[in-house]
Amino acid sequence: MHGLRPVTLCLLLLLHGALIFMVNAGITSSFVRKEAKSIDMPFSSDVFSHPPGYNAPQQVHITQGDHVGRAVIVSWVTQNEPGSSTVVYWAEKTPNQKHRATAGKVTTYKYYNYTSGFIHHCNIKNLEFDTKYHYEVGISTRRRRRFWFMTPPAVGPDVPYTFGLMGDLGQTYDSNVTLTHYEMNPVKGQAVLFVGDLSYADHYPFHDNSRWDSWGRFAERSTAYQPWIWTAGNHELDYEPTIGETKPFKPFLHRYRVPFRASGSTEPLWYSIKRASAYVIVLSSYSAYGMYTPQYQWLLEEFPKVNRSETPWLIVLMHSPWYNSNSYHFMEGETMRVMFEPWFVHYKVDLVFAGHVHAYERSERISNIAYNIVNGECTPVKDQSAPVYITIGDGGNIEGLANNMTEPQPKYSAYREASFGHATLEIKNRTHAYYSWHRNSDGYAVRADSVMFFNRYWHPKDDSSSRA
Ligand SMILES: [Fe+2]
């Protein structure tokens, strides 16, 4: 009888060790995306085309206009003159009952040597829940354009609802693939939770704001038909003192309105909405959040208002991730994590979505809140009261992929991959939500990473092994 030769034994032991590591550790996907530069589509691309006709409304986009989903803010730009700021709208079931709402002041802004078109924002209110509405803008001219949207069902604990998730989208050929995949995904998102970094106009000399316009025209095919819930990213700052532009977020805030007052916020950069069975809190990574600041004070008062019997799913959006094992933007979210993580655990936030890092990552349920300067307890630990952190900054912008991970993969990181894509969150009821990430390199229906999440308030069981 021959025993195992020492070399074979060593190999077997190594293999055994590797298998144990694979079982216990997270996954760094072996999928390798073809390396190709992400290039912005030229202005002449069909996705940027202007609607035909003099002063025709363009860059149409909608977002939720109140706290519960019975109002919609309709925004658009007219290039030549202010034109009409009225929206005509009607429920599909009562086409003869046409309503009119008129925007407040039509705004414009200047950015260095750029002057914007005429920006209209009109909040249409007192809509019925769960109803299809048609709407028209540009009604004083022959260039009126018609779109439609669905209002969400009334807020309630077991109302199914499906969100799409995108971040760091930009306007490259890859961005176009991401948006197309979202549109073609058979899961059919009903509203988009967008985690910041829209146009990347600041990539150009003097932050060429024409790229804000082209982004608005590019995204219109989705943003005109379903609300996008906006989060501000660093590419919304447009802070450039060298050319005299010292007011942060100037283009973004002129172009994108949110219903911040409805949630008691004093600034459009942080706010909340309820939608179906979800309570969505939007935070600003690039506004002050230290103790006593307006954002801190608002969040302190906001968390106790969330009634999980009404909206079981508590979701937070921010731009800069707290848990990120990519070397790109490593630890940039750390100061906000230190400030707010104890609250997230105390109030049992279900899911935190962030962008910023141009790759995909999903964490385990972990927290790191024991540290108090002297006790040395500064390692993330499994925590069933903690959220899952998801980085979804892989929309496909001009800066390209972030494919330099820190090694080894930290234990808290459940799945990571440097590919472009989007995600969907299908809330089924108060206990279960089916989440999937879809990489652009696959077919529309392929779920590259998917998990059945259990609600932290109603069903706080370990869902880490529910990878589907
Ligand atoms: Fe960013």
UniProtKB/TrEMBL annotation:
SUPFAM superfamilies: Metallo-dependent phosphatases, Purple acid phosphatase, N-terminal domain. Residues 57-151 form the Purple acid phosphatase N-terminal domain. It catalyses: a phosphate monoester + H2O = an alcohol + phosphate. Belongs to the metallophosphoesterase superfamily. Purple acid phosphatase family. It comes from the Eukaryota. Residues 162-360 form the Calcineurin-like phosphoesterase domain. Residues 386-445 form the Purple acid phosphatase C-terminal domain. Its cofactor is Zn(2+); Cu(2+); Fe cation; Mn(2+). Residues 1-25 form the signal peptide. Keywords: Glycoprotein, Hydrolase, Iron, Metal-binding, Signal, Zinc. This is Purple acid phosphatase. The keyword Thylakoid does not apply. The keyword Methyltransferase does not apply. InterPro entries: Calcineurin-like_PHP, Metallo-depent_PP-like, MPP_PAP, PAPs-like, PAPs_C, PAPs_N, Purple_acid_Pase-like_N. It comes from Deinandra increscens subsp. villosa. Pfam families: Metallophos, Metallophos_C, Pur_ac_phosph_N. GO terms for molecular function: acid phosphatase activity; metal ion binding. Its EC number is 3.1.3.2.
